[in-house]
Specification:
The chain is of the alpha/beta class. 18% of the residues lie in helices and 44% in strands. The chain has two helices and eight strands. The strands form two sheets. It has a four-stranded mixed sheet with strand order 1-4-3-2, covered by helices on one side. A four-stranded mixed sheet has the order 5-8-7-6. A hairpin with a 7-residue loop joins strand 6 (90-96) and strand 7.
């Protein structure tokens, strides 16, 4: 059995779902009510990947101060430019990772303010 699952802290599920679908090409794998307060079980899948994203409730709208997820891209600079043209906040431009020479990394914020890292293979 092979399962990969990532949980992301969010305050506004609809805003988060729209961000990942529109900017990172995720597909909705599940979207169902979880209880009387309106919170939903949402799973998103990257096309061709086994990993799914699940949103966990955050108590407030305060953004994460530490990166919550690392995405791997074949071309970090091209991915950053694609995100930039869609209005995504880029925190750090593509640069060599000080902890891993030869690996390129950049950071951006998702719609919930979470810091994300994009790293080369």
């Amino acid at each position: 059995m092979h399962i990969q699952f990532a949980e992301l802290p969010v305050f506004d599920q609809e805003r988060a779902k729209a961000f990942y679908v529109e900017n990172l090409g995720c597909e909705v794998a599940a979207d169902a009510p979880m209880g009387p307060d309106g919170w939903r079980w949402i799973e998103l899948r990257f096309p061709g990947a086994e990993t799914t994203l699940h949103f966990i409730r955050r108590n407030d709208d305060a953004p994460s101060t530490d990166p919550v997820m690392v995405l791997v891209a074949d071309n970090v600079a091209a991915t950053v430019e694609k995100l930039r043209t869609r209005g995504v906040e880029i925190i750090t431009e593509p640069q060599e990772a000080p902890w891993q020479p030869g690996r390129v990394v950049a950071e951006f914020r998702d719609a919930e303010g979470n810091r994300m890292v994009i790293g080369s293979r």
